Amino acid sequence: MMMQDTLSVLFGLAGLANPFALLIGGALGWFADARAKLVIAGIAAAALSLLLDVSMNFSGIAPVGGYEGGPLAVLPFRFLGGALAATLVHGLRNRAKGRK
User: Fold this and answer.
1) What does the pLDDT look like over 13-42, one tens digit per residue?
2) What b-and-e string marks burial along 2-13, b requiring 16 or more CB atoms within 10 Å of the CB?
3) How far apart are CA 95 and CA 52, in angstroms?
4) What pTM does this model have?
5) Distance in angstroms (rounded) separating the CA atoms of residues 29 and 84
6) Nearest of 21, 23, 26 to residue 93 by alpha carbon
7) CB within 8 A of 58, min separation 6: which ones?
8) 8 Å CB contact between 85 and 91
């Protein structure tokens, strides 16, 4: 793989913009009642999206994003994506409820 291919995998659907990590992070951010729990939401989003990816791969379905490397290589980027989604949803929920 070339450097451009690696960056597109890490910042694309397999890494930062992984739909599973974003959905899980957003859902956990909605129910987070403190900012410190957003880090936990990011970790959980990365771990659960990794488990989903591995189980899909074992069942014969191609991984989301179509990358060739192992799923652990994109784990930090999924953490960032999940944590950003959790932070965004947490902020929107607090703003809608009129809290700080």
Assistant:
1) 888 889 999 999 999 999 998 889 999 999
2) eeeeeebbbebb
3) 32
4) 0.86
5) 9
6) 26
7) none
8) no
